[in-house]
Write a structure and sequence with these properties.
This protein has about 80 residues and is an all-alpha fold. Helix content is about 70%, strand content about 0%.
Length: about 80
């Protein structure tokens, strides 16, 4: 099985790199307006600093999710490789 995983999607599940890129662009196009809408109704408003802070928070959150997902996948793949006596 391939070790290349993109947000929990592996090429072995039938998705090519182009499909993964299209999914990522779609996710970006869905999340950025939602962040803008949330900022519009927040007490901070839509300013350059609040937009930057919210995008940074989104980036850090998604990066942490990816790190945890990859570590879990490594643990699962290493435990599958072991045979019980």
């Amino acid at each position: 099985m391939s070790q290349n995983r993109y947000f929990g999607v592996s090429p072995s599940k039938g998705l090519e790199l182009l499909d993964v890129v299209v999914l990522l662009v779609g996710m970006i196009l869905a999340l950025i307006p939602l962040i803008g809408l949330a900022l519009n109704y927040s007490p901070f408003g839509i300013t350059r600093s609040s937009a930057l802070a919210s995008l940074l928070l989104l980036l850090v959150t998604l990066a942490l999710i990816a790190i945890v997902s990859r570590r879990r996948a490594k643990v699962e793949s290493s435990s599958r490789g072991r045979s019980s006596p």
